[in-house]
Design goal:
Strand content: 35-45%
CATH class: Alpha Beta
CATH superfamily: GTP cyclohydrolase I, C-terminal domain/NADPH-dependent 7-cyano-7-deazaguanine reductase, N-terminal domain
Number of domains: 1
CATH topology: GTP Cyclohydrolase I, domain 2
Radius of gyration: 15 Å
């Protein structure tokens, strides 16, 4: 896997995720962090966005997905986000952290962090 990384920090999206009835009815804040493994060599040489993984387009796709989807588990949401980065945007691999804000009384957030590679979705 390439050592180049595209970083997206603290993407705040509202969506449905959780087991409880109230979590299934009302959108809640979901914090997403991504480390996308993708070669940046071609883009660095050409200085052309067409040779890059466009992080704005990727972010819009993730936002749209989270807003339109509904998951019981943050693990499932994190895997779906990884699939978008790898399958739809051609990343070699990705680390995804998904956190639910205020899910526990004495914690700012609760979440998972996963790492997936292209072979996980073949």
């Amino acid at each position: 896997m390439t050592s180049d990384r595209l970083l997206i920090h603290d993407l705040l999206v509202r969506g449905i995720v959780g087991l409880n009835d109230w979590e299934r009815e009302k959108r809640q804040d979901i914090l997403i962090n991504l480390t996308v493994f993708v070669s940046t060599r071609a883009a660095a040489e050409s200085d052309d966005v067409e040779d890059s993984l466009n992080y704005r387009t990727l972010t819009k796709a993730i936002i749209r997905y989270v807003e339109d989807s509904s998951h019981y588990l943050v693990e499932a949401l994190a895997t779906a986000i990884a699939r978008i980065a790898i399958v739809e945007f051609g990343a070699e691999g990705v680390q995804v952290r998904v956190e639910k804000m205020g899910a526990l009384r004495f914690a700012r957030s609760v979440g998972v962090e996963i790492e997936r590679r292209r072979t996980d979705f073949e």
